[in-house]
Amino acid sequence: MGNTLEQVDTHEPGFALHVEDLTVTYGATPVLWDIDMDIPPGVMAAVIGPNGAGKSTLLKAVLGLLKPVAGHIRFLGRPLSEMRQAIAYSPQRQSVDWDFPTTAGDVVEMGLYGELGWFKRPNREHRARALAALQEVGMEAFAERQISELSGGQQQRVFIARALVQNTPIIILDEPTAGVDVTTENIILELMKRLRDRGKTLIVVHHDLTNVQAHFDWLVMLNVQVVAQGPLNEIFTEENLRATYGRRLSP
Ligand SMILES: Nc1ncnc2c1ncn2[C@@H]1O[C@H](COP(=O)(O)OP(=O)(O)OP(=O)(O)O)[C@@H](O)[C@H]1O
């Protein structure tokens, strides 16, 4: 059942994501400069940095949604072209038209289109998988609800369910807890931890410095360049935070 890439062993030697010499510009302005980054498999990695640091751009570039000026990217040792179905991606909630007339259940099923192909209709098994994913984020009661009628936190959870239903070894989420209340944020963070504990690799743009330490185990500190990266308990230091955020961080 499910797609064949579920069988990719996320604990094989090598990195879940390996990035070398990545440079991205918008017009003439460099937004990411000479990024080298390694994220090991099976971690819950946070990408942090100030507004405009290039966090979303980094995710889009590694996913091939933006064309870098330079760079070399590998997922589990292989090029993106071979690994697309091993990666689920959830963009920032604001980047989506939530007025589009569709239900929460349909949005989650859309996550299966990579597996199904756009022209094959989802069947009962796919529907059941979508419902199971909604259940995992505590949203099964909302399967038939129009997405425009969901709160921001509920929309985030539907988006996470859409990533979950794909059952991929790598999950990339852009600010999955932006604009949600503390209770919902904790639900989402605990869910991400459960996925990590099942061996998945999570790469997450996260904005809340107050809880990054409690939930993540790997950190990439970004501000156009990588300021620091590694196991969170080694690099989440005042010095690195200052180097990343500058004077915006109060003492
Ligand atoms: N499509 C675009 N065209 C031109 N410039 C862009 C575009 N998208 C982003 N930028 C610029 O690139 C820089 C990095 O943006 P990006 O969205 O990657 O930052 P971020 O770290 O994700 O920020 P935030 O925390 O505010 O979401 C910013 O200066 C932004 O203004």
UniProtKB/TrEMBL annotation:
This is ATP-binding cassette domain-containing protein. GO terms for molecular function: ATP binding; ATP hydrolysis activity. Transmembrane segments: none annotated. Signal peptide: none annotated. Keywords: ATP-binding, Nucleotide-binding, Transport. Pfam families: ABC_tran. It comes from the Bacteria. InterPro entries: AAA+_ATPase, ABC_transporter-like_ATP-bd, ABC_transporter-like_CS, Metal_Ion_Import_ABC, P-loop_NTPase. Residues 17-249 form the ABC transporter domain. Belongs to the ABC transporter superfamily.
